[in-house]
Amino acid sequence: MSNGRTSGLATVGARVPPSASTVSAPTVPVLDVDAMLGSEKIIVCCGSGGVGKTTVAAALALRAAERGRRTVVLTIDPARRLAQSMGLTELDNNPREVVGVDCSAGGHLDAMMLDMKRTFDEIVLAHATPERAQQLLDNPFYQSLSSSFAGTQEYMAMEKLGQLDATGEWDLIVVDTPPTRSALDFLDAPNRLSAFLDGRLLRLLLAPAKAGGKMYLKVVNVGLGVFGRILTKIIGAQLLADVSQFVAALETMFGGFRQRADQTYQLLGAPGTSFVVVAAPEAAALREASYFVDRLDADGMPLAGLVVNRVHSVGPAARGLTVERSLAAAETLGEHAEHPLATAVLRIHAERVRLATREQRLRDRFTSAHPDTPLVEVDAFAGDVHDLDGLRAVGAVLAGDDIPEHAHDAALGQTD
């Protein structure tokens, strides 16, 4: 990567974790998860839907906490998977302590889920006079903007990340982002906000808000000529009055919004921050991962590496039994109606080898395009993650620790 960051990376030729599948190309660097957890202040987990990103984020946070770091994990995904896996009935906009974490090393773990509207309301209350704040909170345009306007979720995520970092309460903040394309909006939030605040519509509305009278109505009508129909669908018939009141109330806050967004964007690119891209060994997921790796590189953002999750591998003892030999043996046994169980096992093995070969080919394609991207592969396990024990097992696999077979079967893989 062009940013030159090496924190959390194993050097070329380093030991491949025994609990992860072996990376085929010997020159591909291995992601050193424990080094990353021990050094970074912010870890941002990105990936397309359904690849285990939320589980990976939670497992990283739990492992960091149990290794002695004060950690908080923030999910931007509104799904309830993070709360469920941590034994919490619900998550909200305030950090909640996760019970059952081993704090003997001095760390602890909190978890929270972004409440977009509540975060926006908190910003208004903190940066406006009580009268002006109430005007905004009661404004229908503001209520629509803070609840569902495109890009608001990502900008509020930036605000919340900045708030968490500013408290100094945690050694590590782990962020679980929405699926990859939305995660790109997370990076774009400052520019999107600036474009909105500097846009023609708001500039036209700001000018007449101070002038009043006929000029007010004339300029507003001109400004809304292009956007009126779209915005009317969002906020209804009181468009002109609501938007003009919104702009007048929010005018003094524009600079603060932009400044904080820019500060958080700089934080994402600063030493102490790492991005972890999570993908399944599938064509679409690895294309998304490749797209995001390229975007991070273009923006000079610090990429720690790629986690390839739910990999299907073949054990050393069975590698000599090819697809062809398995199917031939199964056909022979089937013809004689002998050993039906052995016949079924041979066919399952053949399908497993086919799947492992296809996945390896896809991973090789990614590593050919990104040979310097550190990578760790995690086997697909039998069970789903639903508690802290499962998350511990996931973290152990990511870091390359050996784990008991029963824990392996209870661990990762089917949760987003």
The gist of it:
The protein has 416 residues and is α/β, with parallel strands linked by helices. It has helices at residues 33-39, 53-66, 81-85, 116-127, 130-138, 140-148, 152-167, 180-197, 200-211, 213-223, 228-235, 239-250, 254-268, 283-299, 323-335, 340-369, 388-399, 405-410; strands spanning 42-46, 70-75, 96-97, 108-113, 172-176, 273-279, 303-311, 375-379.
How many β strands by DSSP? 8
Number of helical stretches of at least 4 residues: 18
Main sheet makeup: 8 strands, mixed
The rough form would be described as: elongated
Strand share of the residues?
5-15%
- Arithmetic mean pLDDT: 75
The SSE string, one letter per element, is HEHEHEEHHHHEHHHHHHEHEHHEHH
Distance between the termini: 27 Å
Can you list the strand order of the major beta sheet?
3-4-2-5-1-6-7-8
Question: Low-confidence parts lasting 5 or more residues at pLDDT below 50?
Answer: 1-25, 208-224, 406-415
Label the structural class.
alpha/beta
The oligomerization state is single chain
Helix content: 40-55%
Specify Rg, calculated over alpha carbons: 25 Å
Fold and architecture overview:
With 416 residues, the chain is α/β, with parallel strands linked by helices. 54% of the residues lie in helices and 11% in strands. The protein has helices at 33-39, 53-66, 81-85, 116-127, 130-138, 140-148, 152-167, 180-197, 200-211, 213-223, 228-235, 239-250, 254-268, 283-299, 323-335, 340-369, 388-399, 405-410; strands at 42-46, 70-75, 96-97, 108-113, 172-176, 273-279, 303-311, 375-379. An eight-stranded mixed sheet has the order 3-4-2-5-1-6-7-8, sandwiched between helices. Helix 14 links the parallel strand 6 (273-279) and strand 7 (303-311). The protein starts with 32 loop residues before the first helix and ends in a 6-residue tail after the last helix.
